[in-house]
Write a structure and sequence with these properties.
The chain is α/β, with parallel strands linked by helices and 338 residues long. It has two domains: 187 residues, Rossmann fold; 141 residues, 3-Layer(aba) Sandwich (Rossmann fold), CATH 3.40.50. It is 28% helix and 25% strand. The strands form three sheets. It has a seven-stranded mixed beta sheet, with helices on both faces. α2 links the parallel β5 and β6. α1 packs across α8 and α6 runs parallel beside α7. The termini are far apart. About 2% of the residues have low confidence.
Length: 338
């Protein structure tokens, strides 16, 4: 009987150049791709020349999610790739349920890879009677049974301290900045999207060997809206690379770009890690006449949201190397020092 809402997630078909996952190097490793990270997970598997694990995901009429592994992971070093993309709560619950399933099947170690962490902005008690939800999410991942985590560009570094399990907080900075550096943009200035991103903006400026400017903005309330006020630094008659960690609705980007143009900026490039792109973000991007939008695939991007001036860089090779090193007990940090 086929249950409505059931998804059979089958292993990727092997090619002649892909040996099966029982090869000597990765014999004890299993990789599962969650619903939110199918494309990314399959890309990682192809890079490692292994086959993704198979499982069945069912959503019952009461909206409960049920997961069944279609293969044993007993004694295996398991990697689950599941970003916290929209619908966030479905994907978060699927992650927790899959962790529990892996734990109950006696996996030796459960490594959870969530390239984007939802609720990361709720990292401190900055108002009366509010939660610290990022800490809650970290606790849920641990209680579910994860032994280790991997993520990218956390909104605040202190979130690493919310986890009592070891992990790797990676960054897409090297991937994105290398791409920009190869473009060799003339007369360039890096502009941090706000004061909170100033330190990371400085890293961008140092990597590219160009000056730094900062967009000063203030958030008015909890609605997420903000207002760009002024530019700290000189952007007059300069090409500008606007950098940030994530973009949701694009309102802050619109304000920043308008302010940069008012201050005399020429071509404006935009680069950020997490492309949430909710609501009318894409329509806003279309209206800004940006030279290029450079992002990563920590979140899946629907085809209708891909613009002609958008460049999506894949984190899959980096994650594959991290998985290989972690599985073999080698240093992950050395990967970024080579």
């Amino acid at each position: 009987m086929v249950i409505p809402g059931t998804t059979h997630v089958k292993p990727q078909e092997m090619t002649e150049t892909q040996p099966n996952d029982n090869n000597k190097r990765f014999n004890g490793l299993r990789l599962f791709c969650g619903s939110a990270s199918q494309a990314l997970g399959n890309e990682i598997a192809a890079y490692l020349k292994i086959r993704p694990g198979s499982y069945t995901r069912t959503v019952f009429s009461n909206e409960n999610i049920f997961v069944r592994l279609n293969e044993s992971v007993r004694g295996k070093d398991v990697y689950l790739v599941q970003t916290m993309a929209s619908p966030i709560h479905d994907n978060l619950m699927e992650m927790l349920i899959m962790i529990d399933a892996l734990k109950r099947d006696s996996a030796k170690r459960i490594n959870v890879i969530f390239p984007y962490m939802a609720y990361a902005r709720s990292d401190k008690k900055d108002q009366p009677r509010v939660p610290i939800t990022a800490r809650l999410v970290a606790n849920m991942i641990e209680v579910a049974g994860a032994d280790r985590y991997v993520t990218f560009d956390l909104h605040a570094g202190q979130i690493q301290g919310f986890f009592n399990i070891p992990g790797d907080a990676l960054t897409a900075f090297h991937l994105l900045s290398e791409y920009v550096a190869k473009k060799n943009i003339d007369n360039l200035v890096v502009a941090a999207a706000d004061l909170g991103f100033a330190k990371k903006g400085r890293n961008w400026a140092e990597r590219l060997g160009v000056p730094l400017a900062i967009v000063e903005k203030r958030r008015r309330d909890n609605s997420g809206s903000s207002e760009a006020l002024t530019i700290i630094g000189d952007v007059h008659d300069k090409n500008v690379l606007l950098v940030d960690d994530e973009v949701l609705t694009g309102g802050s980007v619109v304000n920043a770009v308008q302010t940069l143009r008012r201050e005399g900026a020429l071509d404006i490039y935009l680069s950020f890690t997490h492309a949430l792109l909710a609501g009318s973000a894409i329509d806003k991007f279309k209206s800004l006449n940006l030279k290029e939008i450079i992002i990563s695939n920590t979140l899946p991007i629907a085809p209708e949201k891909l613009l002609p001036n958008m460049k999506v860089l894949s984190i899959a090779p980096m994650l594959a190397e991290v998985i290989a090193r972690a599985h073999e007990g080698r240093s992950v940090g050395e990967l970024f020092n080579e």
